[in-house]
Amino acid sequence: MNPNTAPSPSVTWRTHLSLLLLALVYIFSFIDRQVIAVLIEPIKRDFGASDTQMGLLSGLAFGLLYAVMGVPVGRLFPRLNQQIN
User: Fold this and answer.
1) Using CA atoms, how far apart are residues 21 and 67, in angstroms rounded to an integer?
2) Which of 43, 56, 59, 77: CA 20 to 30 A from 34?
3) Does this model's pTM top 0.90?
4) What is the predicted pLDDT for the residue at 6?
């Protein structure tokens, strides 16, 4: 065995759980984007919003929410990982 090679990573139930959680986050993110895209016209009619306002809602506001919430969720993940271990 070569001493310069790192041991291969072990796959445990924690790695599968992490993958599952990341997949769920991605799925919900995708659904969020699709729901807004599908419902943009009814929302526009109900609230009498302009195309600019709807563009800000579906683009800028959505992106800012994910950017702002990314920091607290990113800080929360190591704590959850410690509890699992």
Assistant:
1) 19
2) 77
3) no
4) 72
